[in-house]
Amino acid sequence: MSELDREERPTRGINLLGENQGWNITVGYTIAVKQGVPFVYTDELIAAETGRTPSEIIRQDSLARLKIVQNEVIRDQSRDGIEVWAAGETVINDPELVKYLRTLGTGVYLHASVEPWRSRITDEEFAGIVNPQGLDVAAIHEKRNRRYEEAAELTIDVDRPENAPVGIVKITPEEVAKIVVNTCVNL
């Protein structure tokens, strides 16, 4: 039995925040499976309810419309009890929704460097829709970092081995999941 499978569990839900480079989803799913609680990925919820991804909603309608849809879908799907949420990237642009998610659980920001995120940003038109100021990718990343840090009660830097247990050179999603659970249990 791994340390993550232990009987001790967080007493509140966990809300994973950060650019979706796989960390939020992988870590969230790992925690949910090992702890036997529901896992909710906000972008999947939106797609299931609307038949469109958040990106499609922004492109076809607007960012303002996505905010309305996100609020409706997330508020309708939240339940009482412990759940693990992985918030899509656009959630951080809605302070009221971030505040609501904090009522559901502990906010955990999984901070990653700009490089993996930069490699995903390839659609200039889309970048213009969500980036009307025309900032470069690094500036957008820094702006979002501040929002994530303000929204979260805990920040874990997934790029830095000092977050990893002794002897671990590169932190893995499983190790991040252990850190999240252990920290949330002790909050």
Task: Set down the secondary structure blueprint.
Layout: E1 13-17, H1 23-35, E2 39-41, H2 42-50, H3 54-60, H4 63-77, E3 84-86, H5 95-104, E4 105-111, H6 114-120, H7 124-130, H8 137-151, E5 154-157, H9 173-185
Parallel strand pairs: 1-3, 1-4, 2-3, 4-5
Helix pairs in contact: 1-9, 2-4, 3-4
Structure description:
By secondary structure, the chain is of the alpha/beta class. It is 51% helix and 12% strand. It contains nine helices and five strands, in the order E-H-E-H-H-H-E-H-E-H-H-H-E-H. Strands 2-3-1-4-5 form a five-stranded parallel beta sheet, sandwiched between helices. Helix 2 packs across helix 4. The longest helix is centred in the middle third of the chain and has 15 residues. The protein is globular, with a radius of gyration of 16 Å. 33% of the residues are buried. The model has no long low-confidence stretch (mean pLDDT 78).
**Strand residue content:** 5-15%
Shape: globular
Strand order across the largest sheet: 2-3-1-4-5
Summed over residues and divided by their number, the pLDDT gives a mean of 78
Series of secondary-structure elements, N-terminal to C-terminal: EHEHHHEHEHHHEH
Oligomer: single chain
Share of helical residues: 40-55%
> How many separate helices?
9
